[in-house]
Automatic annotation (TrEMBL):
Its EC number is 2.4.1.1. This is glycogen phosphorylase. Residues 5-112 form the DUF3417 domain. PROSITE patterns: PHOSPHORYLASE. Belongs to the glycogen phosphorylase family. Keywords: Allosteric enzyme, Carbohydrate metabolism, Glycosyltransferase, Pyridoxal phosphate, Transferase. Phosphorylase is an important allosteric enzyme in carbohydrate metabolism. Enzymes from different sources differ in their regulatory mechanisms and in their natural substrates. However, all known phosphorylases share catalytic and structural properties. Gene3D superfamilies: Glycogen Phosphorylase B. InterPro entries: Agluc_phsphrylas, Glyco_trans_35, Glycogen/Maltodextrin_Phosph, Glycogen_phosphorylase_DUF3417, Pyridoxal_P_attach_site. Signal peptide: none annotated. Its cofactor is pyridoxal 5'-phosphate. NCBIfam families: more_P_ylases (TIGR02094).
Length: 867
């Protein structure tokens, strides 16, 4: 039953249903005015609040002119936000008319619990920042009726899970309906004549629609109804069905939504991790139904596709038994017009070290996308190495996977107190622009804020965290079976004047939740130091099937339960967005100690930094990229080849203790005039001014638009059906002829003798004899590759330049290419040559994974020319 609002209050419904309220302080304040106690009871969820406000209170507010004026202003502001031009609309013509963004989870707000961790929070921040910038995104995901699990602790500290049932009618969602009012239905064919049907629910994320597919519909059999029961739950076939519904069903949901609403059809499809990779197969099916053959359709689909990988380890990728995949793509199942062997080939691990029995979702994602990226500079390097087998013959640096470092949505994660301090100094508009668009010039005003104001802000946030921790800790102990008489000690937990360290994240082993416990006596001394104590707030969930992770949680909980230290270290169960929004601002230091380089990006430290919290982290993910000693600390990595796991952890834990005792705590407690820690405050300023503009999701989304979305849209437009056929035929011809392509001879011609040395700035002429077999010069590019030579005799820091045909083909068919080589750097210098396929519709030379390089006997194939 939905509440009936008085006519003057009807705009409250629209404000509650558009999730912009979750990052718009003025709208949240309006709901607090509506019923402050009810707002707290509803955990800050406007829809729950509206369902609980007494009719008498609504009637009184309907007659309250001041409230009605404020409501009208909020409604007008939302209308302007949804309809006015923003950053995207002010860019030059040619950007995509729309982009479809697929992800298995979305963390928008705690009121829509459809996320488990960093991947979902990143996806939610991507949507919110796209909305703020006016980027015409359509989000696509699944609606999990049980969401992700809620975490509690047993008396012994063992993680316990429960799955509350979510009713979509009680969530900020609207059912997508046909023109006749019936629910829109998305259907997939399953083996044996069965069907998987789904309804589509829509969430309004500011300007961005988020479509969530829900298989819990009456027309489905019981097994199919449960496909969208839990996020990351079930066995292999269950996960496969979820990912087929997300990818294939998601494309069909987008088509239905655009048909019903007139929303522009997406020109670009962005796959956020491999879970949604099947979307490319559905797009191929659409094109083959319109008359293209599979190969041409594949080229067209690749042109407009972007794939983002988030995992730095093969174990983090979804892989399915090939037989299971083949059964679901047979003639009596989904995509019956497409040869199952072609589908299996897209996910085949047909490279050294691959498993031929498995179907790899990330490999399929890369093969179905012309553009791919990792989520930090270091993760881009790791990804290029991890997937190098797909591009044999190329150095890892040339694997076509770029990097766009993640960012966080500042309006969601910046505490209201931080925002208000900025607004007082530079104005609301300038502060909003700084948080949305970034730009260092917008953050320079932080220097104008006095030390006293900065320190007062930090203490206020720390004090709020202490209150939040005590409240949550008391509730947790009651869940663990403790009575009120046992809990008096909680009133003394944490101290608002003590250095506060935060550590909160999922609990896979590589994040090392318990590294801080390696030397418990030393940690205890740090916690209880009489002059410079520290206190630690820890939170995190282990996957329900990960008993190893649960044991780590229990180990930490048992240490924190010790009466000797429990006032200085706490573990808070059920880590989620609502907790995080209190935790990040209230901590002075954010701790992160993963195994390098297994943290692809790690955005929790970014959220902390936006609130003036300093980072203490292993150089991994984003911290490896942007760390500076002016505003944080780096934990040394013990990654020597002779260091075993136990010794590595001992060394890195010892380094952590040393940093805390010798650098972090002294800096915090070193007080100057007025009792202020001047050097600490300068580090807070450095964090905000230097990292603030960099860690924004607004910066991230603008980079996606410029580096990936815009080029993908241009490629998609260029791949007309005829162009797609041409490109597919050309690729088939080149692949067939490539065994006949070779570099036959290389020689260097110089005015003076080289003798192993040359002068800086001098030049030499390269002459290269090549065999092209059945290919023409227009099919290839012959390149010289020059750069430094490292101690292992490998070229590094190379630059490539094309060589040009120098004469007609010789009688034996060989062709001569020439070009000038300039010696532009000192030290060991080397070069080589190679032949690559070349076509105007290729995004990069390595795209096809084909290269011909000199054999050992082909002359001066490569050599050190300058020392």
């Amino acid at each position: 039953m939905r509440p009936v609002l008085p006519e003057p209050l009807r705009p409250l419904s629209e404000l509650a249903r558009n999730l912009r309220w979750s990052w718009h302080p003025e709208t949240r304040e309006l709901f607090q005015i509506l019923d402050a106690e009810g707002w707290r009871a509803a955990d800050g969820d406007p829809l729950r609040l509206l369902g609980a406000v007494p009719a008498a209170r609504l009637a009184a507010l309907a007659d309250d002119r001041r409230f009605r004026r404020r409501l009208a202003a909020a409604a007008d502001d939302l209308h302007d936000y949804l309809t006015g031009n923003r950053w995207y609309q002010e860019q030059p013509a040619g950007l995509p008319a729309a982009i479809a963004y697929f992800s298995p989870e979305f963390g928008i707000t705690a009121a829509l619990p459809q996320y488990s961790g960093g991947l979902g929070i990143l996806a939610g921040d991507h949507l919110k920042s796209a909305s703020d910038l006016g980027v015409p995104l359509i989000g696509v995901g699944l609606l999990y009726r049980h969401g992700y699990f809620r975490q509690a602790l047993s008396r012994e500290g063992w993680q316990q899970e429960h799955y509350p049932l979510l009713d979509p009618n009680e969530l900020p969602l609207t059912l997508l309906r046909e023109d006749d009012g019936t629910p829109s239905v998305i259907a997939l064919a399953l083996p044996g004549g069965r069907s998987l049907r789904a309804h589509v629910w829509k969430a309004e994320v500011g300007r961005v629609p988020l479509l969530l597919l829900d298989s819990d519909v009456e027309e489905n059999a019981s097994g199919e109804r449960d496909v969208t029961d839990r996020l990351y739950g079930g066995g292999s076939e269950h996960r496969l069905l979820q990912e087929m519904l997300l990818g294939i069903g998601g494309v069909r949901a987008v088509r239905t939504y655009c048909r019903l609403t007139g929303h522009p059809t997406p020109e670009v499809f962005h796959t956020n991790e491999g879970h949604a990779g099947f979307l490319g197969l559905e797009r191929i099916r659409e094109l083959t139904a319109d008359g293209l053959d599979f190969d041409a359709a594949l080229e067209s689909v690749r042109a407009g596709a972007v794939f983002t990988t988030h995992t730095p380890v093969p174990a983090g990728i979804d892989r399915f038994d090939r037989g299971l995949v083949a059964r679901h793509f047979a003639d009596d199942a989904e995509l019956p017009g497409i040869d199952p062997d072609l589908v299996l080939g897209l996910g085949a691990e047909d490279y050294p070290g691959g498993d031929p029995a498995l179907f790899n979702m990330a490999v399929m994602g890369l093969r179905l996308a012309q553009r791919a990226n990792g989520v930090s500079t270091l993760h881009g390097q790791v990804s290029r190495q991890m997937f190098a087998g797909l591009w044999p013959g190329f150095d890892a640096d040339e694997v076509p996977i770029t990097a766009i470092t993640n960012g966080v949505h500042a309006p969601t994660w910046v505490a209201p107190e931080v925002f208000r301090l900025g607004a007082r100094r530079v104005g609301v508009g300038r502060t909003e622009d700084a948080l949305t668009l970034g730009g260092s010039e917008r953050w320079d005003s932080i220097a104008e804020i006095s030390d006293a104001d900065v320190w007062e802000l930090r203490r206020t946030l720390r004090e709020q965290l202490v209150e939040e921790v005590r409240e949550r800790l008391r509730a947790s102990w009651r869940e663990r079976g403790a009575g009120t008489a046992e809990l008096g000690w909680i009133d003394g937990v944490l101290d608002p004047d003590v250095l506060t360290i935060g550590f909160a994240r999922r609990v896979p082993s590589y994040k090392r939740l318990t590294l801080m416990l390696r030397d418990r006596e030393r940690l205890t001394r740090l916690l209880l130091d009489p002059q410079r104590p520290i206190q630690i707030v820890v939170a995190g969930k282990a996957h329900p099937a990960d008993d190893g992770g649960k044991r780590l949680v229990q180990e930490l909980v048992r240490f924190a339960d010790d009466p000797a230290v429990r006032h200085r270290i706490v573990f808070l169960p059920d880590y989620g967005m609502a907790m995080a929004q209190k935790l990040y601002p209230g901590c002075d230091v954010w701790l992160n100690n993963p195994l390098r380089p297994l943290e692809a990006c790690g955005t929790s430290g970014m959220k902390a930094a936006l609130n003036g919290c300093l980072n203490l982290s292993v150089l991994d993910g984003w911290w490896d990229e942007w760390y500076e000693p002016d505003f944080g600390w780096a934990i040394p990595t013990a990654d020597g080849s002779g260091t075993d796991e136990e010794r590595r952890d001992d060394l890195e834990a010892a380094a952590l203790y040393d940093l805390l005792a010798e650098r972090v705590a002294p800096r915090f407690y070193d007080r100057g005039p007025g009792g202020l820690p001047g050097r600490w405050i300068e580090m807070v300023r450095g964090t905000l001014a230097t990292l603030g503009p960099k860690v924004l999701a607004g910066r991230m989304v603008r980079e996606y638009v410029g580096h990936l979305y815009h080029p993908a849209a241009e490629s998609q437009r260029a791949l007309t059906p005829d162009a797609a056929r041409e490109l597919a035929a050309w690729k088939a011809r080149v692949r067939a002829a490539w065994p006949g392509v070779a570099v036959d001879h290389v020689e260097t011609v110089s005015e003076g003798p080289l003798n192993g040395t040359a002068e800086l700035g001098s030049t030499a002429t390269l002459r290269v004899s090549v065999t092209l077999g059945d290919l023409d010069p227009s099919d290839v590019e012959v390149q010289a590759l020059a750069g430094r030579v490292d101690p292992a005799d490998r070229l590094t820091g190379t630059s490539a330049f094309p060589l040009k045909p120098a004469a007609a083909p010789a009688l034996d068919g060989r062709r001569l290419y020439e070009g000038s080589l300039t010696f532009d750097r000192t030290g060991p210098f080397g070069y080589t040559v190679r032949i690559l396929p070349a076509h105007r519709l290729l995004a990069q030379g390595a795209e096809m994974g084909l290269v011909a390089a000199p054999a050992e006997a082909s002359g001066e194939a490569a050599g050190v020319l300058m020392r």
